[in-house]
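Our preliminary data section would be incomplete without showing what the modeling component actually yields. Below, a chain of 64 amino acids is followed by its predicted structure, encoded as tokens that our downstream tools consume directly.
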Amino acid sequence: MCSPMPIAPTRGAMIRASAAKTPWRLQVNASNLFDKRHVTSCVARGDCFLGIGRTVLGSVTYKF
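Predicted structure:
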């Protein structure tokens, strides 16, 4: 049986920057900003699964 973990919401953020006259766009997405450990689900036999830790993704886009 897994030990109980508190249910806490995770925080995410998205930042995007683009200039009006340029074809470039920069974007950063982050989830679980404070890297909280949390249980996403538990099954009847007692197996519990932890959620994904902090994730940060970045992208650069050029529009032709």
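The chain is about 0% helix and 45% strand. The radius of gyration is 18 Å. Preliminary results of this kind motivate Aim 1 of the renewal.
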